[in-house]
Amino acid sequence: MGGDAAARSGPAAPGLGYRRREPERTLLHSTVREHWKTFLAETEERAGASLPRFVVGEFERYLGCGILANGFARVRCTACGDELLVAFSCKGRGFCPSCTTRRMHDTSAHLVERVIPRVPVRQWVLSLPRWARFLLARDPALITRVLDLALRGVFAWQRLGARRAGARDPRAGAVSFVQRFGGALNLNVHFHCVIPDGVFVREEGGVRFLPLPPPSDEDVLAVLRRIVSRLEPLLRPQLEAARADARPLDPLGAAQVEAMQSSRTAQPDAGRAKKRAAYLGGFSLHAGVHIHENDREGLAHLCGYGARPPFSQERLSALPDGRLSYRLKRPLHDGRATLLLEPTELLRRLATLVPPPRAHLSRYHGVFAPASRWRQEVVPPPDAIASPGHCDAAPPPAPAPAATEATAPAGPTRNPRRIPWAELLLRVFRADVLACSCGGRRVVLAYLTDPGPVKAILAHLGLPATGPPLAPARFTAGPAESGWQDEVPELQQSLR
Ligand SMILES: [Zn+2]
Ligand SMILES: [Zn+2]
For the chain, N or C: smaller number of CB within 10 Å? Predict the structure, then answer.
């Protein structure tokens, strides 16, 4: 839970820094409201099966995100008594623009302030052939194994270099982001790994960072060779098993194949040789981005990029004919600069972006691993953490061993490992909900979740006591107009 949208309940005051977000007014929200039931009915009708529960839940929670009728926190200024209602957010990790944006800021801030020390870092990006992306998209455990093997390849190269430089027992570390998507709402599971450009060694007096020279093009290729030689024996048998499986794909699988096929962005690297990039059998490894140890803003940007939302609301617009246009940052392989989508097509794409439950989107390895005994000595010391000043939580200790996910949005629970939610809102909206325009500080009076009191308070304030209604399903059984389900066998075939 985190505060999200606020409604004024007192008299309007000029200069109020924080305004209600009104998610129900966005094109995405109205599109989902209008077409969600139709999309469900269409899926059932065509595929004879439902979407997985975690996907349905993600949409349902998104529809309630930031809507006061679903509950809120009452926040009051201790100085002037001014009150705000702050609606709850859905904490969605799939496509909710507000929650995925906040997650990006939260993750980035957490990593820069509490995990990654002041050392030079390099981004290593591993991408996979399409057949492998599909396997990984459907199997979170496989994602974990592939990432582990990939990092072992990088770490082995780093340790070798360190030993050659005379280091004894060098240790490497990585913070990795699992991205499930490309720039065109296309399914593309790949990895962004932020890795110190050096290793850690234990010496008398503590742990020291030993910088290593940047990898050459040959080094990157050698690392990729090693990774692919480990991945092929893991992934090929799974591909064979998928091929042998004669059952039709479930609706989510069909949507995944479609999302993988239909909007491939142009190969950014085709035809021009990039530095510190290697390609092998459909796999690629890039290690071209380097951040100086003092460039903490650059590091925050890099981490934010790794944790970025898959969907950008600002790029979505409505066409007069009812279709939607999604502007792309990079053109597709056929030159198109926008995606044109029927509303239910957009919903199908969004469904493929939802990560399965418990599939962590950011991971820690090596010295940053939750169980690593080196972690406490490597992460920034607690006194280096900037105090938010108004924070009511205890000074944060170093991240606790149980944390493997840096990204859970901070809630009102006093979890000292997390950044206070008001500070997160500040990062996202650049306005501090807990700072009153009178100069005083606001405190949370209560969290209201019971429909009775919620409705009563909203009615008293003249605010809508129910969320905006969902349109009924408009799907009628009959000849399917787009026939996407019929294309699936062909798409499956093309994966081979
Ligand atoms: Zn005040
Ligand atoms: Zn949300």
Answer: C
> What H or E segment, with its residue span, contains residue 208?
strand 206-211
Dist. CA 465–CA 449, nearest whole Å: 13
125 CA to centre of own chain: 16
Residue among 283, 311, 307 nearest 183 (CA): 311
Q: How far is the CA of 490 from the centre of ligand 2 (A)?
A: 36
Q: Ligand 2 mean position to 350 CA, how many Å? A: 14
* Cα 92 to ligand 2 centroid, rounded to whole Å: 5
Ligand closest to Cα of 443 equals 1
What element of type H or E holds 83? strand 83-88
What is the distance between the alpha carbons of residues 463 and 89, in angstroms, rounded to a whole number?
18
Share of the chain above pLDDT 70, in %: 79
Give distance in angstroms: CA of 13 to centre of ligand 1: 10
Q: Measure 445 CA to ligand 1 centroid, in angstroms.
A: 14
Per-residue pLDDT at 408: 30
User: Residue 360 in contact with residue 405, Cβ under 8 Å?
Assistant: yes
CA distance 487 to 475: 20
Distance, CA of 496 to CA of 494 (rounded, Å) = 5
Give tens-digit pLDDT for 300-342: 999 999 999 999 999 999 999 999 999 998 888 788 899 999 9
| Distance from the alpha carbon of residue 15 to the mean position of ligand 1, in angstroms | 12
Q: Is 381 exposed, middle or buried (0-12, 13-18, 19+ CB in 10 A)?
A: exposed
Residue 411: pLDDT over 60: no
Polymer length of the chain: 496
Average the pLDDT over each of 174-183, 387-396, 398-407 and give the range with the smallest value: 398-407
Which of the two residues, 165 and 434, has the higher pLDDT score?
165
> In the predicted model, what is the mean pLDDT of residues 6-15?
40
Its pTM stands at 0.81
Query: Chain centroid to CA 55: how far?
Result: 15
The number of helix segments (H) and strand segments (E) in the chain equals 13, 15
Nearest ligand by distance to the CA of 435: 1
CA of 89 to the centre of ligand 2 (A): 5
CB atoms within 10 A of CB 245: 10
Calpha distance 228→153 (Å, rounded):
9
Q: Residue 65 and residue 26: Cα distance in Å, rounded? A: 12
- Taking the centre of ligand 2 as the mean of its atom positions, its distance from the CA of residue 215, in whole angstroms, is 40
Pairwise CA distance, residues 350 & 39, whole Å: 12
Confidence of residue 268 (pLDDT cuts 50, 70, 90): low
